[in-house]
Design a protein that fits this description.
The complex is a heterodimer of chains A (114) and B (113).
Chain A lengths: L4 E3 L2 E4 L5 E6 L6 E7 L5 E8 L14 E5 L5 E5 L8 E8 L8 E2 L3 E5 L1
Parallel strand pairs in A: 2-10
Antiparallel strand pairs in A: 1-3, 3-7, 4-5, 4-8, 6-7, 8-9, 8-10
Chain B lengths: L3 E4 L2 E5 L4 E7 L4 E9 L5 E8 L4 E4 L2 E6 L4 E6 L8 E9 L6 E3 L3 E6 L1
Parallel strand pairs in B: 2-11
Antiparallel strand pairs in B: 1-3, 3-8, 4-5, 4-9, 6-7, 7-8, 9-10, 9-11
The chains are: A mainly beta (114), B mainly beta (113).
């Protein structure tokens, strides 16, 4: 079946603008994760959704970052008033219900803030 | 705070060589450890997942080991091929958390003809 998809694949924006990044998880997956991969740094966890539970937002770097997951499926990561340090690849992953399931990653959105 | 380190950061080997990638983590209270492959401009592909109770996992030419008590894992690639060229990431999943992963910074592998 289809894997995790993300859009757009590339986004160039000006400093101070808001951006929205979209993730379509694998159908039926209850868990959804957002990660950020900055140049020269490893992947860092941002936020996690599990079913109807309150999301784990412990990885969000500032209050300019927010995410929502509508209908338990599609998720949108929003970055307000973008800064140059927000430039990174944003990766989304989804996972099935079993605790041992692996996370399946999308191709990512490359965000460049000028 | 869990820290995951991968050595070496980059590696270049001729085709056919066997090689070992290393991963170390500071907190041994992990649920599992996973090795991923990342190709340029693409997402991550899971290669092997080792549960905390396991010592190793094998898939084809790949073998991953886990020594939880010492905080180490290795990924062994046998008879390397140019198609193995990619960045290899290890990630640990913590116990008692929302299954979020902590990643190492990766090893960039180049297999030359």
């Amino acid at each position: 079946g289809a894997g995790v998809s993300q859009s757009p694949s590339n986004k160039v924006t000006e400093k101070g603008k808001d951006v929205e990044l979209r993730c379509d998880p694998i159908s039926g997956h209850t868990a959804l994760y957002w990660y950020r991969q900055s140049l020269g740094q490893g992947l860092e966890f941002l936020i996690y959704f599990q079913g109807n539970s309150a999301p784990d937002k412990s990885g969000l770097p500032s209050d300019r970052f927010s995410a929502e997951r509508t209908g338990g499926s599609v998720s949108t990561l929003t970055i307000q008033r973008t800064q140059q340090e927000d430039s990174a690849v944003y990766l989304c992953a989804s996972k099935g219900m079993a605790t041992e399931d692996t996370q399946y990653f999308g191709p990512g959105t490359r965000l460049t803030v000028l | 705070k869990q820290e995951v380190t991968q050595i070496p950061a980059a590696l270049s080997v001729p085709e056919g060589e066997n090689l070992v990638l290393n991963c170390s983590f500071t907190d041994s209270a992990i649920y599992n450890l996973q090795w991923f492959r990342q190709d340029p401009g693409k997402g991550l592909t899971s290669l092997l997942l080792i549960q905390s109770s396991q010592r190793e996992q094998t898939s084809g030419r790949l073998n991953a080991s886990l020594d939880k008590s010492s905080g180490r894992s290795t990924l062994y690639i046998a008879a390397s091929q140019p198609g193995d060229s990619a960045t290899y990431l290890c990630a640990v999943r913590h116990t008692g958390t929302a299954s979020k992963l902590t990643f190492g910074t990766g090893t960039r592998l180049q297999v030359t003809l």
